[in-house]
Task: inverse folding
């Protein structure tokens, strides 16, 4: 999507792509912040952090990958 918007030179398409990317970033950031509040023990253990990231990678595909694969 971003590459297509850049290639077209359409400012509106660039702004829309930027808005979508910011939405993805904000949603992911909010999710991770809520995890550390809900489960404070994660912040205190590198092992738990690695386990959480492994599960997240497995269960929750990166939405940015989907945005860039559609280009």
Result:
């Amino acid at each position: 999507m971003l590459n297509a918007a850049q290639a077209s030179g359409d400012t509106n398409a660039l702004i829309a792509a930027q808005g979508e990317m910011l939405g993805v970033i904000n949603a992911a950031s909010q999710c991770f912040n809520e995890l550390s509040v809900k489960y404070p023990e994660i912040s205190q253990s590198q092992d738990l952090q690695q386990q959480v990231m492994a599960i997240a990678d497995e269960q929750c595909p990166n939405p940015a990958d989907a945005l860039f694969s559609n280009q």
Notes: The chain has one domain: 2-69.
